[in-house]
Fold:
Amino acid sequence: MAELRTLVLVGGVLLLLGVATTVLHLLRNRDDSSLDTAVLRTFRMRVRAWWVLFAILALAFLIGGTATVVLFGLMGFWALREFITLTPTRPGDHRALFWVFFLFTPLQFVLVGMDLYETFGIDWYALYSIVIPIYGLLFVLARVALAGDYKRFLERVAKIQVGLLICVYCLSYVPALLTLDLPTEEQAAEAAAAPAPTGNAAGAESARNPEAPEPPDGTDAEAEDGDRPYWGANLALLFFFVLIVQLSDALQYAWAQIPSRHPIAPTINPNKTWEGLLGGTGSVALVGAALWWATPFSGEDWWMAAVMSMVIAVMGFGGSITMSAIKRDRGVKDYGTLVEGHGGILDRIDSLCFAAPVFFHLTSLWLEWQRSQ
Structure:
């Protein structure tokens, strides 16, 4: 059942992209001066970028969880490269950057993958949740200091650490959604029918530490003891998250085109308006509520899908405008040229990076609260 939900969600998105591509192609061929060609061109480039993103994501899903983790690991590596390239470095930074790129970046996603398969029965979340914010920071500080170059020391270290946090650490929480212990439909039904627990029994089981055997890679298997969540449910949740982030970006841009415009920070990005933020957030909440069946927020808690969608939209907006501020500071339009018409990979995943850790932790807390009831 969960695998079917994932296939329906993925297939539906690809079908809508096909429809959107056809409609935009027809509009482009129309000789209608009332159409804003700049807006149509922007949406056409967005749809093209979405084809690439969702097609690769769907392929990774079909291959399995490992491929999904690897995919986001490669995206994080490339995004960090774009971020670091954008700002000047000194020779004293190069050795530290070597370890940042070839140790801490892959290590973060390796730890997520080990948590996904519960390698050695260890809760790897306890390590990958701190390895970059603590150990990465301490290493970068010490390694840059050992180079003996003290000019703009704090500025250089801050740049490296901010790039590592945004492009690698925050992005790693997207594939980390696969590690959440989502309840099966049978478990949800039993929980609804069972009396509420009392005493210390409530909340004994954590959403972050499921004790269950490893699922077959890329399958929708349930463990024999019934404790392992639907594999497909995690994939559906991940796809739901990516879809809501991308829709939020598009809907905020669409709402920002209305005649009455009130930019939030015009010196950073005049296209980010209060109309776009409020209209886009409200619209994506309706979409999220309609897709509640692809999330663990089911039954009487369907409204949580709408609330989570609003959180995703607000955090995605924060990521977009923050990365725009960095580009303004560096005097560039895009972070790179990897995605035709839309700059670099970081231009496409900035919203994902900001929304992922918040969505992951709120969902984890909600699951723990549900188990405590």
The CA atoms of residues 52 and 347 lie 14 Å apart.
